[in-house]
Amino acid sequence: LIKYRIVNTGGNFSANSIRNFLKHEGISVSTNTINNYLRQIEDAYILIKSRREEIKTKKIFTTNEKYYCIDSGFYEIQTGFNKSRGRILENIVFLELLRRNYKITIGSIDGLEVDFVCKKPNKTIYIQVSESILDEDTRNREFKSLEKINDNYPKYVLTADSLLQKRNGIIHANIAEFMMNGELFG
């Protein structure tokens, strides 16, 4: 369970899907047991959970949460050469947002996902993370969910790209700049 969650850092998760997978492998376990193990993994400071939020209604869901590694080294150890740079970057941004004292949820709007809805008192920002948006399909996917949000809070797409693009008031920023520039995102 630990290895599965670490390898799938930043991926959607439900205890029921894990139960079904284990059942297929001939292992019988309840969703309660899986949830208990996950709480213990969180208590051991290996993973941290981020809940899903419907952006329009502000409703917090208790299913399809995402888990992130407290230490990116856990991901490195478990994945070896099969690394997803996008997952690593998303995990790094998540940890940095926590360090900056944001309360973070995973956003959902009209069936699309927003990687991070970040809140502090009197401050909200929305963030998408991608390794690159130089590919047009990837660029459209990353901007699309943010474009559906009708409030006036800042919206960012963070990438490793050096060629930066703006679109419909959404700021495209380099992840290294985000990490170094505390002023940029508070």
Feature tags:
186 residues, alpha/beta, 8-stranded mixed beta sheet, 8 strands, 28% strand
Number of strands: 8
Structural class: alpha/beta
Overall mean pLDDT: 89
Instruction: Determine the number of helices (DSSP H or I, runs of at least 4 residues).
Output: 8
Uncertain residue ranges: none
Percent of residues in beta strands? Answer: 25-35%
Task: Spell the H/E element sequence.
Answer: HEHHEEHHEEEHEEHH
Helix content: 25-40%
Order of strands across the widest beta sheet?
1-3-2-4-5-6-7-8
How would you characterize the largest beta sheet? 8 strands, mixed
- Alpha-carbon distance between the two ends: 35 Å
Structure characterization notes:
By secondary structure, the protein is an alpha/beta fold. The protein is built from eight helices and eight strands. It has helices spanning 2-7, 15-24, 31-43, 72-79, 85-99, 136-147, 175-180, 182-185; strands at residues 12-13, 47-54, 60-69, 103-109, 112-120, 123-129, 155-159, 171-174. Strands 1-3-2-4-5-6-7-8 form an eight-stranded mixed beta sheet. Helix 2 packs across helix 3 (31-43). The protein is globular and about 50 Å long.
Briefly summarize what is shown.
With 186 residues, this protein is α/β, with parallel strands linked by helices.
SSE layout and pairing:
Elements: H1 2-7, E1 12-13, H2 15-24, H3 31-43, E2 47-54, E3 60-69, H4 72-79, H5 85-99, E4 103-109, E5 112-120, E6 123-129, H6 136-147, E7 155-159, E8 171-174, H7 175-180, H8 182-185
Parallel strand pairs: 2-4, 6-7, 7-8
Antiparallel strand pairs: 1-3, 2-3, 4-5, 5-6
Helix pairs in contact: 2-3
